[in-house]
Write a structure and sequence with these properties.
The protein is of the alpha/beta class. 45% of the residues lie in helices and 14% in strands. Helix 6 packs across helix 9 and helix 12 packs across helix 13.
């Protein structure tokens, strides 16, 4: 056992000194079961966090708008999607979307995160791209200062496929309309064998990479994610990390922001389709496994992806607080309304107040600060409600 800990300590020391972890290293770290070893990994990740971004925990005031749950795909983990005309199916009209945005701005939001199901009927003049462009244009026309974090790589692929367009054309037109950044969802897990069971209709891992790298080349930042804790292996997770790190290196080499953050999305299956639930054998995330995975993600990404965020929706604020002491530095957004994960059975809630987020951060004796989507820090002028962003 002494030899095992000596090797582990050397591995962690190398990571903290700036040596990149290999896929084999990350796999080994995530497979640890000894409590002392796990504590050392989490402590090393938190030390790396402290070196790279300091002690301040950030958050963003934002709102999710999931404009439709009508979707042509049938992912095995999804409890959100509906067929058109079935009970619970919805498709928000423009007035409703604008009203939700107005309410969010009145509550201090600087960001709207907008995603939805893949609805083949969502077209204007037989063009899917026109429909998505008008979603953006109507919001930017009323609130030009609002940051729109919108449309996953899966939605980009859907639009391109529907209209017979290239990814660059789709992303470019959305960017011109006012999309400021792209959510890195739909990554799920890149391992092909797992992906075929998890989401066989979804865009491939190669397509996800192509969409994201195209966005980065066009100057559009994205987030990065991984859906973990289902039927994937530790090696699958490590391989996933490697793809993300490689993409970020490419973006930085081209002078682009690339990924603004990494977010682990632990599997929640309480209301998900039964077949995957039976294979996984549980309905809620395993907190210790999720926190260890986030700690290893921090160590593996190193200086390349410096912002790491837990999902309070999936882990609760208590779980997020533990992650913030294990390598994460951002607690995410207020969201105001969250449907996709909540409908799968997550217990974290559908929205949080700024006070709740700040209280959680204060509970671990760390300072907090509001940020923008792109991680500029926000100072609010309490005399007139205006916000001023300072680059970190």
């Amino acid at each position: 056992m002494v030899g095992v800990f000596t090797r582990l300590n050397k591995l962690l020391a190398r990571a903290l000194a700036g040596t990149e972890l290999s896929v084999d290293d990350a796999t080994e770290l995530m497979a640890q079961q000894d409590p002392e070893a796990i504590a050392d990994i989490r402590a090393a990740a938190d030390e790396m966090r402290r070196k790279l971004v300091g002690d301040t925990v950030t958050y963003v005031v934002n709102r999710n708008i999931n404009f439709t749950n009508i979707c042509e795909q049938h992912c095995s983990f999804c409890a959100f999607r509906r067929n058109e005309g079935t009970e619970g199916a919805y498709w928000l009209d423009n007035a409703t979307i604008a009203a939700k945005a107005a309410e969010a701005i009145a509550r201090g939001a600087t960001e709207i995160c907008m995603q939805g199901g893949l609805n083949p009927a969502a077209q204007i003049d037989s063009s899917t791209l026109k429909y998505y462009v008008q979603l953006v244009a109507q919001l930017k026309a009323q609130w030009p200062e609002l940051h729109l974090h919108a449309f996953s790589p899966q939605e980009i692929q859907f639009i391109a496929r529907q209209d017979g367009l290239g990814f660059a054309r789709v992303i470019g037109e959305l960017q011109a309309a006012g999309v400021g950044s792209m959510p890195g969802t739909a990554a799920e897990i890149f391992a092909p064998a797992v992906r075929r069971k998890l989401c066989p209709e979804k865009l491939t891992a190669d397509e996800w990479v192509e969409v994201v790298s195209t966005a980065h080349q066009l100057g559009m930042p994205t987030t990065s994610t991984m859906l973990g804790g289902h039927i994937e292996s530790h090696r699958d997770r490590a391989d996933h990390f490697a793809v993300l790190r490689s993409l970020q290196k490419q973006a930085k080499a081209s002078g682009q922001t690339g990924f603004t953050e990494f977010i682990l999305l632990p599997y929640v299956g309480e209301s998900a389709p039964a077949m995957l639930r039976r294979k996984v054998g549980r309905d809620q995330p395993v907190l210790d496994d999720s926190v260890l995975t986030m700690a290893v993600a921090r160590l593996f990404a190193g200086e390349w992806i410096v912002n790491h965020q837990p999902s309070w929706v999936k882990l609760g604020l208590g779980g997020a607080a533990i992650a913030l002491q294990s390598g994460c530095n951002d607690i995410g957004g207020t969201l105001m309304e969250e449907h996709i994960t909540s409908m799968a059975g997550a217990k974290g809630g559908t929205g949080q107040s700024v006070e709740a987020l700040r209280g959680t951060i204060a509970g671990i004796n760390r300072p907090s600060c509001e940020r923008t989507t792109l991680y500029d820090l926000v100072m609010r002028d309490t005399t007139n409600g205006q916000t001023l962003a300072d680059a970190r």
